[in-house]
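Posted in: Structural Biology > Protein-Ligand Complexes

Title: Requesting predicted complex, 4'-deoxy-4'-aminopyridoxal-5'-phosphate in pocket

I'd be grateful if someone could produce the 3D structure tokens for the following input. Sequence and ligand are given below.
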Amino acid sequence: MTWPTWLPIRKDLAELSPYGAPQVRAEATLNTNENPFPPSSDLVKAIASAVEEVSLSLNRYPDRDAKALRADLAGYINALSATTFGAESVWVANGSNEIIQSLFLAFGESALGFTPSYSMHPLIAKVSGTSWFDGKRNPDFSFNIDAALSQIKVRRPRLTFLTTPNNPTGEVVPLSQIETLANVIGAFGGLLVVDEAYAEFSEEKSAVTLISKSPHLVVVRTMSKAFAFAGARVGYLLADPHVIDAMFLVRLPYHLSSLTQSAARVAISFKDELLAGVTKLVQGRNRVSEELIGLGLTVLPSSANFLLFTGFSQSAPQVWQKLLDHGVLIRDVGLSGFLRVTIGSDAENFQFIAALSEILAAEEKR
Ligand code: PMP
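-- Reply #1 --
Done. Output follows.
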């Protein structure tokens, strides 16, 4: 970006551009790993009535510590993972991006992650004054535990980020490897941050089950994906209560509005209905993967609600644009020769595959 000379922008920010996938209109929006299923009318009504009730006291600040919502989130995780967390082990904020920012603010200085992964990790690190090291993966983007351990031992970062299932590849890291990482990181006093934004789409046990054994492990989750609640902006953290105490130091006062807190509590009470969508999306993912393979493409194994694929002969930006011309918006994640598609409704998936097969057929004819 170019800035006017009079603007006292921080030198380390001046070279950056704002993050964000293009928000353009499309018939099939499959670019930001959102959940395609809108809330049911029962859920909409329940949220509206909860919001009406809290609106009566909007002259007052919200519960600064979001105690009831944190207790509900603990209950949700305990039911999923057979854990025994209380509210003191949970922090909640405006999306998991804010959770990640708070982790940098509280523990930053140095952080390491394994690229390619969620591109906001290094960006939020930079904005919050943490130096970031890009750790290596295998050439096929799979996670290499031995290489990871040696990079961690050399760098000894305060924070090590591991996304599982990984975005944009969809790969899941086995729990045994997470335990090994947490032990090595714990030995020199670092924290392992496991970003489980897509955990509900995976069959692997959650890393939350290791927290009672290792206080050096913190797990970031979100209601944006499986819960189909991206618009409400609710992310959370499960960790040892001492980690949560540090979050209190860096949070802004009253950071989570009472409207958000009450809407999120209603959504959690509808968890069975909302999570039913996850099963449909996993089935959709398996179908779309087979169809992509049927088109002669290569698909990385995914345990999330998206697929990373390659094997087309045009450039990724060209295929991306042609799909958009067909009304289908997917994501060019900046990996040469690869594109990422979010699993949508059956109709959206169908439209994506139909458009792509047309584009590939036209490619062959040339
Ligand atoms: N972590 C990962 C791995 C993600 O892919 C995303 C969103 N794409 C986030 C965190 C942030 O999600 P949110 O802020 O909506 O909770």
